[in-house]
Amino acid sequence: NAGVTQTPKFQVLKTGQSMTLQCAQDMNHNSMYWYRQDPGMGLRLIYYSASEGTTDKGEVPNGYNVSRLNKREFSLRLESAAPSQTSVYFCASSEPWNPRSENEKLFFGSGTQLSVL
Amino acid sequence: KNQVEQSPQSLIILEGKNCTLQCNYTVSPFSNLRWYKQDTGRGPVSLTIMTFSENTKSNGRYTATLDADTKQSSLHITASQLSDSASYICVVSAWSSASKIIFGSGTRLSIRP
After folding, report:
1. In angstroms, rounded to a whole number, what is the distance separating the alpha carbons of residues A46 and A106?
2. DSSP strand pairing (B19-25 vs B4-7)
3. How near does any CA of chain A get to the CA of B38, in Å?
4. For A93-109, how does the pLDDT look when each residue is reduced to its tens digit (9 = 90+)?
């Protein structure tokens, strides 16, 4: 049982290059998320997918696109990387939030450290 | 505006000592509060969850408290070990949608032998 798996672990891009971060979970969770973590700041939500076939913008979606390929996989794409996108990116999954759920817990991957030069 | 603030930003203590980390929040409507531990180079891992009706919850040497009236939480670590060196993140969820999960910026805890 691997949990949440992210690839790659490290990536260096030049400004304007594109790339896709991959994420897969084997816990049969409906909800998946992409966050970025910058020094001195809390994790910020880029996009999330409450269920297969749906995606929604989070707090900082500009410059990113996502694809919920199936229930297991949720990818994040940078079409034209910028230095401001240098960050550590985390994928997470959870059971879907609902008003009666008090046990929503996020399971995180180990992160992708991205540098844009 | 929904916010989660943690203090101190960083803390260094000797192995075996106790410490307390603080979290203040202004998230509304409040659903639950979690403390996560994040080791260097890893993703956060949930330690405890507190709901509105709970005041104290323990997980081994970790004890979390919640005061819903003052909107404050604390994480107390007893008899610290070197493996406790990590960032501790306070996360508050609101009753509205899956996207309303607000992260604090964390407290970086270093345990010295």
Report:
1. 15
2. antiparallel
3. 10
4. 987 655 555 456 889 99
